[in-house]
Each structure stands twice: as C-alpha cells, then as structure tokens.
Amino acid sequence: MLRTILTSLSALALTVLISHTALAQNAPAATAAPAVPAAATSNAIQSVNIMDVKPEASLEPGYAQQTNGERAKVQPGNNAPMWRQVGSGVEGYSSLPKSTAPEAGVLIQPFTQYPGSRLTNAGEAWRQVRNNWIIPYGGSLVLIVLGGLGLYYWRKGAAKLPDAPTGRKIERFTPFERSAHWANAIAFCILSISGLVMAFGQYVLMPVIGQTLFGYLTYLLKNAHNFAGPLFAVSLIVVMFTFVRDNLPAKGDLNWLLKGGGLFSKDHPKAGRFNAGEKMVFWGGVFFLGLTVVGSGLVMDKLVPGLSYERATMQIAHMVHAVSTVLMMAMFMGHIYLGSIGTEGTYQGMKTGYVDENWAKHHHELWLEDVKSGKIPRDRTAVAAAAVAAAQAKTV
Ligand code: HEM
Fold first, then answer.
1. Following DSSP, what letter does each residue of 281-317 receive, concatenated?
2. Rounded to an integer, what distance in angstroms lies between the CA atom of residue 330 and that of residue 244?
3. Which segments of the chain have a pLDDT < 70?
4. Where do the structural domains in the chain lie, given as residue ranges?
C-alpha cells in the first residue's frame, strides 16, 4: 500500500517537472511570434453577413418551408423557422403538468382575431382591443354620462315634489332590504373606483401623482377590488331575490315608458312599487350586466370549475368584464343620481326605510293605492314583528 502511494507521488512529481521545463523552453518563442499567421486569425474571428453569402440560400426552392435543421445547413445561425413556429403557437415541451399549467409549453399564443383587432398573436390582439377600443370608448362613455348628468343637474336641478309633506309615512324598504342594497352599493363603489383607477389611472392619475405613489395606490386598490368582488357577488344575488317580485312587468309600465317617465312633463305617469325605468335598471343592470360582471370576474379569479385556464380564457374574460362593467357603471350612474341628489325624497326611503305619502303619490301612485287599500301593509316590519310576537305568545 505504502509502496503504491510513493510510486504515484514520484510519477506526479516527474510529470510536473517535465511540463514546467517545456513551458520554460517555449516561453520566449511564444512571446516573440504568434504560432498562427495574422491573416488566418482575423479570418477565424470575422463573421459573415448571410445576405452576402453567394449563391444566396434564400433563392433555393423550398427555402420558406425549411425546418430549422435544414436552414442551419444553408445558413448557419439563422433560426427563423424555429421562431416562426414559436410565433404560430406551436407547443414545445414543458415538464409542468397539463392539469395545473395547460399552456406551459406554448411560448407565444397562435394567431387570433378578436372583435376590433387585427389577425395577429392572441396576446397582441387582446392588447389592441383593450388599448384601441375599451380604454378610449369606455372612458369616453363614463365621462359623457357623468358630464350629461352634471349638465342636467346644473340646468334643471333636483326634481322637486309638487306638494308639501303630509307627515304620513309608509315603509318603503325593510331593514333587510336596505342592508342588502347598501352592502351591494358599497361593494359596487369600491369596485368601480378601483376598477377605474386600474384601467384609466395610468393616463389620468399617474402623470399627476407620479409613478411611485400610483404604484402603491394601484396595488392597494387591486387588493380592495379582489376583496369587494365576492361581497358584491353575494349581495347581488340577495338583491336580485329580494327585489325580483316587484320588478316583474306590470300594469302601467308601457304607459310609463311611452311618457318617458314624466321627465319632460309636469305630471308623473302612474307606477307600482317600482316604475318601468327602475325595472329596466333591475333586469338590464342588476340581472344581466351584474351576472356577466360577476361571472367574468370569477373566471379571472379562476374560481369557475371545469374551465381550462389558458391565456385566451383570461383575455376573453377580461374583455367581457371590462365592457360589461363600463356599461354597468354608465347605467348605475343614472341610478345613483336619481337615488341621491336627482329627486327629492327618494334617498330618504333607502336611508331610513320610510317615505312620505306625498312622495309615494308623485312617483308610485299605484303602489300608494295598494297601501291605502290594505293590499300592502303600510309598515311591513311592524306587521312582521307583530306576527312573530303573536306566534311566540301562542307557544308560551
Ligand atoms: C351609491 C350608490 C347607490 C345609491 C345612492 C342608491 C340609491 C337607491 C335608492 C334611493 C333606491 C330607492 C329607489 C326607490 O325608492 O324607488 C334604490 C333602489 C335600488 N337600488 Fe340602489 N343605489 C345605489 C347603488 C346601487 C347598486 C350598485 C345596485 C345594484 C347593483 C343598486 C340596486 C338597487 C335596486 C335593485 C333597487 C330597488 C329598485 C329596483 O329594483 O330598481 N343600487 N337605490
């Protein structure tokens, strides 16, 4: 054993000695003159422009159909066939499982044409729809509605009640109805403000408050958006079930619509608990747009089971979400205007739960008639509380 180690060490020492001597002998020659001629060195490091190589490889028949391997033979370093395939959405290998990352092998999406875009890679097509349509036209719609309402209020002011209050109150909304409505309205306002900043803030806010502050603000609002979304979804369903019965088409709706809701006349067309305008907001805004907004939002949160969450799914969900939210905001700006500063006494109903008989006569005369005839209790909460008390008294 010891002999083997000693033999190996002496062999190693001999090798080091020989190579050292050889280096020392070669050293002056190496510095004195390069082993390779200068012309040969410059040839080796010079590259060649493939366009200048003759005969021109691109003139060969079938050049455009070449695979990357074939191209490498005629034009080394030209990887155009590979990138063309990547750009057309060809799927490569990925070790990530399809169930969690269905598109991991696809670097660039295939060609698509979304409504309003050119025929191009889907990512670019989506970008064109967002930047050329949703942002400019959506933003304009919101501004036009806002400006129109402002102008109307400035010129005409709030719609006043013609008579003085009677002092006789009717319960318009129960505490449950108001809680559902306000939960939904608060969530809607958080979603609208955060959504508007996310979509338009970079054009309107960022130049004013700077990138850093805008970055923090958007980060905060994006999280607020994600928290308010589920609250909006749940309260929207509750609102829908709570108000659906009184929003069904009824006597007087057509007449109300034909008279434009009395917007341009002194006398108000008769209406039931909710007028035809409110019913349109309910079915168009709450039901159709509300469900579309919630549905597309849930898709973007990857919460709808059974869907393949690819980039195209997200792009389509985003476009649907953006268009329906802009329409919904435009519609609800009208609702918020009429439910707050636009008409005298209306906000009181949603705030306190009670309205004056005078308000009911002016805006919802058919509803008032039902209250007066006893068909609808004047105070539904009191009636329900009395019924509960009576039931409890029976069981004691
Ligand atoms: C700050 C925002 C809002 C304000 C100030 C507001 C105000 C009002 C007021 C005052 C009423 C009572 C109208 C009446 O007595 O006929 C009302 C009713 C109603 N609101 Fe709102 N609202 C707001 C947001 C929303 C939102 C976001 C939704 C739903 C997405 C909504 C859905 C409803 C529904 C369903 C009714 C019952 C009348 C109907 O069915 O058309 N509101 N709102």
1. IIIIIIIIIHHHHHHHHHHHTT-STT----HHHHHHH
2. 22
3. 1-45, 50-51, 53-55
4. 131-386
What is the DSSP code (8-state) at residue 270? P
Tokens standing for 351? 């705030």
DSSP E strands in 61-219: the ranges are 111-112, 120-121, 169-171
Contacts of 72 (CB under 8 A, 6+ apart): 78
Residue 236 near residue 286, CB atoms below 8 Å: yes
Question: Residue 235 to residues 76, 189, 231: CA-CA distances in angstroms?
Answer: 63, 13, 6
- Fold observed for domain 131-386: Fumarate Reductase Cytochrome B subunit (1.20.950)
Q: Give the SS3 label for residue 37.
A: coil
Token pair of 294 as six digits: 């919630």
Where would I find the H helices in 244-282? 253-258, 276-280
Residues 6+ apart with CB under 8 A from 359: 161, 165, 344, 345, 346, 348, 349
Positive or negative, the Cα torsion across 303, 306, 311, 312? negative
Pocket around ligand 1 at a 6 A CB cut-off? 172, 181, 184-185, 188-189, 239, 243, 247, 274, 278, 281-282, 286, 290, 332, 335-336, 339-340, 346-347, 349-350
Tokens 């064109």, located at residue? 128
Token pair of 109 as six digits: 């999406």
Whether pTM exceeds 0.85 = no
pLDDT recorded at residue 268: 80
The best mutation among 325, 350, 368, 376 to test binding of ligand 1, ranked by most ligand atoms within 8 Å of the C-beta, falls on 350
Q: Strand 169-171 and strand 120-121: pairing?
A: unpaired
Residue located nearest, by CA, to atom 41 of ligand 1: 278
